[in-house]
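Run log // design_07
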């Protein structure tokens, strides 16, 4: 899939008529499992034998899992064949770029520009609160 991260997020949103990552993962045939991770692990994306998998921390609340699912879908569409776990353990490659790109996909998919415009003069903090996303994630729409 080519294009900017925002274009990719907008394309998928329009094509499948959703901004819900739980709906999108079904359209994209991504198998999803809830897993008993340590509290500081939100989830992970795994690509194995042409199959995509997302694992979500089962102890996280629905809103946290929704954000994590969006982030992991970002990995699946932007970094399709990259196995993050392998890369982190066996290479010296800087993973921060991959994480930032997945976060950008997540916020662009979850909160399209048209919805931001509906908030008028709200502050970013107020929008983040209304959308149930961390402020730092929302700020990625504006960099």
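design_07 sequence
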């Amino acid at each position: 899939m080519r294009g900017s991260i925002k274009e990719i997020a907008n394309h998928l949103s329009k094509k499948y008529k959703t901004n819900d990552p739980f709906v999108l993962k079904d359209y994209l045939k991504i198998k999803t499992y809830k897993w008993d991770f340590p509290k500081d692990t939100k989830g992970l994306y795994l690509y194995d034998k042409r199959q995509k998998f997302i694992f979500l921390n089962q102890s996280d609340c629905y809103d946290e899992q929704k954000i994590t699912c969006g982030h992991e879908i970002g990995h699946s569409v932007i970094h399709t064949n990259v196995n993050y776990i392998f890369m982190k353990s066996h290479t010296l490659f800087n993973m921060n770029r991959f994480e930032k790109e997945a976060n950008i996909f997540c916020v662009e998919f979850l909160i399209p520009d048209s919805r931001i415009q509906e908030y008028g003069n709200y502050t970013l903090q107020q929008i983040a609160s209304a959308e149930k996303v961390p402020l730092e994630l929302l700020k990625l729409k504006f960099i």
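The first strand starts at residue 31 and ends at 35.
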